[in-house]
């Protein structure tokens, strides 16, 4: 059985994907209307629902992109730092496991981690906080990682088999010019079930929640053009040109997903490599009739 409160908060894109997966598996869940930075309300909600576990998809990134956080730093801190830490702490006080969706945009390629080389592991310290979005996520992770009841899943360029405004595919389609650089990514059609499994087994610690390997912006656009939008066109420009039109620089990084792959294999679930997961997502989109 399940309960979906569509008129309440918690209806962001990732939240919706999690709700769909829970519905498929027949799990009971509630979507809370409480602001995660409101301590009294969070504690009251936990006491009311008495959850076996919590999945937190709340957080701000902004629209149409992370530059929003440069002009709304207070909102970014309130949600991404204060809210996340408050929710994790409240769950800790009530003895509740929490799965927290974090960001992998706290790493940037360096001489030891070129995009065609080894990826950053969970044990390596973050090295990027030049955008305020990344800074808020970095501070948040450093605070909550010390709690024994939290599972931290680092997403990167998440995409799924839809055209939601927050989907990485939809974001790319909006731009006339793109940089064409390989990056790690989270293909949610393959990864959402993994998040539920990890939550159910009360895994803790940090996971690079990305599919193994990388993909480029052009590869995503080519698949979009092939499967759902034949008329799609775009041009490429350099990182230097991109920086001139953004308020804050962007990170480009490859993450090591071997810990996730090994853990999920132990639960009988396969994390697809990035290329196979992309192919699967676009096949599903085409079957759904997206254009």
Automatic annotation (TrEMBL):
Residues 32-174 form the NAD-dependent epimerase/dehydratase domain. It comes from the Eukaryota. GO terms for cellular component: methionine adenosyltransferase complex. GO terms for biological process: S-adenosylmethionine biosynthetic process. One of its GO terms (molecular function) is methionine adenosyltransferase regulator activity. Coiled coil: none annotated. PANTHER family: DTDP-4-DEHYDRORHAMNOSE REDUCTASE (PTHR10491), METHIONINE ADENOSYLTRANSFERASE 2 SUBUNIT BETA (PTHR10491:SF4). This is NAD-dependent epimerase/dehydratase domain-containing protein. It comes from Aspergillus avenaceus.
């Amino acid at each position: 059985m399940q309960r979906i409160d569509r008129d309440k908060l918690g209806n962001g894109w990732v939240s919706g994907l999690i709700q769909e997966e829970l519905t498929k598996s027949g799990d009971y869940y509630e979507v809370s209307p409480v602001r995660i930075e409101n301590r009294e309300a969070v504690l009251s909600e936990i006491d009311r629902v008495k959850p076996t576990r919590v999945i937190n998809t709340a957080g701000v990134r902004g629209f149409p992109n992370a530059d929003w956080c440069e002009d709304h730093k207070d909102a970014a801190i309130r949600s991404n730092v204060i809210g996340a830490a408050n929710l994790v702490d409240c769950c800790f006080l009530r003895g509740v496991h929490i799965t927290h969706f974090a960001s992998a945009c706290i790493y940037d390629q360096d001489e030891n981690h070129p995009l065609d080389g080894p990826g950053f592991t969970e044990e390596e310290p973050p090295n990027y906080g030049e955008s305020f979005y990344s800074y808020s996520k970095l501070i948040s992770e450093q605070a909550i990682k010390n709690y024994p009841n939290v599972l931290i899943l680092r997403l990167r360029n998440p995409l799924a088999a839809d055209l939601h405004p927050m989907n990485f595919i939809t974001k790319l389609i909006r731009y006339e010019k793109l940089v064409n650089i390989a990056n790690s990514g989270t293909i949610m059609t393959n990864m959402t079930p993994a998040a539920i499994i990890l939550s159910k087994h009360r895994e803790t610690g940090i996971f690079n929640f990305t599919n193994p390997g990388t993909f480029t912006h052009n590869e995503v656009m080519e698949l979009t053009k092939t499967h759902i939008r034949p008329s799609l066109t775009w041009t490429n420009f350099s990182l230097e040109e991109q920086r001139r039109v953004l308020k804050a620089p962007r990170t480009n990084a490859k993450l090591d997903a071997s810990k996730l792959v090994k853990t999920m294999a132990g639960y009988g679930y396969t994390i697809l490599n990035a290329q196979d997961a992309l192919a699967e997502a676009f096949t599903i989109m085409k079957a759904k009739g997206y254009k």
